[in-house]
């Protein structure tokens, strides 16, 4: 089998590995789709000393082609999604499906465990979810991280059709949040400094779009769209500190803000927000039950998650794929068989 390995400093290569053999409670999945995620870029751009020799990628979907001795052979040939964090399987967090929060230490695909930018990937059976009928491999791959992260954040915000939500950043996660929020019935104010990304957000159903680089005050611009009150919910996905800060200031009384973007810093005057009775929370990916709920919602509501993908690549096109993705000017990319 072959897999893409990051070498650091924007270098990577396609490496040949032995085909994996499953342990008793493991399965081997033939990768039909492996999404490209913004968090991959941290390792791709990082130093050579920070690399780990593991196969990259953590948004897989595929078909089970081999099973361990403790796994029923009935799973052979089934199309599956994979939750990309593996825990001890025994602690309270693992039992709740939050394996990334494992009290005994989790491993992550594409980082501390081999990932899905490969022909085959070996994973614990506990990380497997059957794909619901009607879900594409591309959608399943997106739900395993990017779209699933958006879903997890919207659920942390308790978003409903009564809400107006400002979504900062319209990259793959932010655009997925826009898509899902619209499907939930909420009004979306989409914000991004890229006109092309704002155009896509509008096409995905955003009620209003705002370019922060073209307004004097983001908070005032958002309030103008809501009769001066502000929004009931806000979500920051870009990792930009300016956006993370603005996510607080656009809120109406009793509003709620959530942050998923990595790398931002927030400083605020507690008194200012105390008297507005706001709720502030973070959200990190999603649990296994939430991943299943997201997949079912996508199928039941007919959400076209495949539209998130603007580039499709073969493994042999790895260099071109990440060179383009590194520019962060396109939509979501995916490797397919």
TrEMBL record:
Domain Enoyl reductase (ER), by residue range, is 8-335
Cofactor(s) it depends on:
Zn(2+)
Annotated keywords: Metal-binding, Oxidoreductase, Zinc
Q: Which residues cross the membrane?
A: none
Q: Does the keyword Lipid metabolism apply?
A: no
Q: Which reaction does it catalyse?
A: 2-deoxy-scyllo-inosamine + NAD(+) = 3-amino-2,3-dideoxy-scyllo-inosose + NADH + H(+); 2-deoxy-scyllo-inosamine + NADP(+) = 3-amino-2,3-dideoxy-scyllo-inosose + NADPH + H(+)
Q: Which InterPro entries does the UniProt entry name for this protein?
A: ADH-like_C, ADH-like_N, ADH_Zn_CS, ER, GroES-like_sf, NAD(P)-bd_dom_sf, Zn_alcohol_dh
Pfam families to which the protein is assigned, alphabetical: ADH_N, ADH_zinc_N
Highest rank taxon of the organism: Bacteria
Q: What class of enzyme is it?
A: oxidoreductase
Instruction: Name the Enzyme Commission number(s) assigned to this protein.
Output: 1.1.1.329
Q: In which pathway does it act?
A: Metabolic intermediate biosynthesis; 2-deoxystreptamine biosynthesis; 2-deoxystreptamine from D-glucose 6-phosphate: step 3/4
Please report which protein family the annotation says this sequence is part of.
Belongs to the zinc-containing alcohol dehydrogenase family. DOIA dehydrogenase subfamily.
What is the purpose of this protein? Catalyzes the oxidation of 2-deoxy-scyllo-inosamine (DOIA) with NAD(+) or NADP(+), forming 3-amino-2,3-dideoxy-scyllo-inosose (amino-DOI).
Q: What is this protein called?
A: 2-deoxy-scyllo-inosamine dehydrogenase
- Source organism per entry reads Streptomyces akebiae
